[in-house]
Amino acid sequence: MASFPATGVCYYPEHWPQSQWASDAKAMVDAGISWVRIAEFSWAVIEPSPEEFNWQWLDDAVETLGQAGLKLVMCTPTATPPKWLVDQMPDMIAIDADGNPRKFGSRRHYSFAHQGYRKESQRITKLIADRYGNNPYVQAWQTDNEYGCHDTAVSYCASALNGFRRWLGQRYGHIDALNQAWGNVFWSMNYRHFDDIDLPNLTVTEANPAHALDFMRYSSDEIKSFNLEQVEIIRAASPERPISHNYMGMFNQFDHRIVAQDLDIAAWDSYPLGMLQNMQAAARKDAKLEHDCLRTGDPDFQAFHHDLYRGMGRLWVMEQQPGPVNWARHNVIPAPGAVRMWSWEAVAHGAEVVSYFRWRQSPFAQEQMHAGLKLRDDSDAPGLAEIKQFNREIKNLDIPQNTQAPVALIHDYTADWMTMLDGQTEDFHYLRLLLDIYGAARENGATVDVIGPDDNLDGYQLILLPALMHVSDDLAERLEQSSAIILAGPRTGAKTEDFQLPENLAPGPLSSLIGATITRVDAMPRHLPVKMKWNGEDCEVSVWREEARLLSATSDNSENPLMTTSNKARYLLGWADQTTLKSVLKSALEDAGLTPHDLPPYLRVRQRGKMAIFTNYGPLQVDIPESYKGEVLIGDRKIDPAGVAVMTLTD
Ligand code: GAL
């Protein structure tokens, strides 16, 4: 039997009597689960007082779980530094943007910039890595837990201030270069020394966006080096075992790509229903979507993140929602079948492991309303039956290797930060724009890779780069050389690396490829759309509209064209409604020599080689379009709500 795909579960032996561990482990194995993640919040149990250790319970837990046939993901417990450590060095506590300490009493209360905490993080990592690095049951690692969760990627503390000044000194070399890059002449913000510079919080009005952007870059680099310190220790003590970190959905506060360079597995924690609620609050206020997908989730959100993180490493879902969660605005029960559907979708997008959070519901503390796979009385929670079914299904299928997709969507953290810091309309939300365009490609049946701006473009037939705010000269050159159809905009190439306007106007270094420059932008409220022309017809555009000066590009000659075209390059001058975007993507796919399919609402599909995996996020039964020919291996051509079908395609 192939070892991937497989399932796992998050387990907290320290929450349960030792007498229960063996029966828990057996029940996991009986359910078809093969991985178990442990210990990420266990520091105070391992080391209850400074240098006083209690390893026995963890030794026993590893042995019991391993003996039962489970493979372990061992975690470093640095997301939860114990109280005694905080008392020893109170300045390790992170400070929020209002200048208030993030107090002890939950988790993630440390600053990445604090050198004393760095040493402690390395000390506890080394102790665990040395103890379990060669344990035969420990087959993978996770560093820390969800870097940046609860708004902790940045800290406005004294350590960060010192670190930032040093970082700026290294980046700019001379203070005049920084003043120039930031445009500090603007409001007499010039500095004479790097040590004059403060953190970009608590300014009278907004801080210089270039200052704020550099602080995000610096904070990101701190997370990278914090993670790398742990990775180097684990690699030395535990060779051959892959190392992961569990990222989150909808999270942009650090550059995950630079962190992922040092890891093997890019894992993420997928909570479709909680994330639907969070996106509704932040960016996608869409009553129909919330109504139709309340119990399944946004049909593109999970897929997008699978593709995003698969672009950074081997993909795992480290925490998969198993039932209702506790932390969203509203916490509903998933539709029957949804847990299985999410699991299948993860595999469709290349996940090696889908691991559920958590084995048993906690009876105490913060997450007692969060479902597990077992109820408090040890009976099965409804999610478990779906996981058992999923395990039987994946065991009996030969799932082909994931291969490169024909379409690439370029995603960039710096672009996200720039749109945040220079939004121009509060309704501009980078992830939402990307989801709209990604979703429009998928409504045409496209399989998409999400890649970074430095990634290889070879082999792609269609490259999408919406709102890629800064385009490097190198990327511009590679796009020019590529034989792919390019669909850029809006807001692509709108800023230089230093967060200034390009001298030749947007899209900066892409101007000759696009054959147009942007002369004016109209940044609007989402609820007041305007008309533009697409294919000679009116379409609705909201939030963002641009006016262009055409160089070599053509448009449909109307006053308000949605798109310009110049050879292989197309540029979108507005954020169009979803029906229009679907049509735009259909024509782009056709121009790229690909065959679009017309999927019914909320039906999505992803191909792994010849295998096509369909997921129905909608409230109605839908048919797989006739254009998909082949053998149905799982399910039926009619797919129920929250249902799945798996086909082998013949052409
Ligand atoms: C994740 C976190 C877990 C748990 C879970 C609840 O963000 O990593 O520890 O809190 O959410 O859904």
Please give the largest β-sheet.
8 strands, parallel, barrel
CATH superfamily of the domain at 34-239: Glycosidases
Bound ligand species = beta-D-galactopyranose
Note the total helix count. 19
CATH architecture of the domain at 34-239: Alpha-Beta Barrel
Shape descriptor: globular
Q: Per CATH, what is the topology of the domain at 34-239?
A: TIM Barrel
Spatial strand arrangement across the major sheet: 1-2-3-4-5-6-7-8
Q: Provide mean pLDDT, rounded.
A: 97
**CA-based gyration radius:** 25 Å
Taking pLDDT < 50 over at least 5 consecutive residues as the criterion, the unreliable ranges are: none
β-strand percent reads 15-25%
What's the CATH first level of the domain at 34-239? Alpha Beta
Distance between the ends: 28 Å
Give me the count of strands.
24
Could you say which structural class the secondary elements and strand pairing correspond to?
alpha/beta
The level of helicity is 25-40%
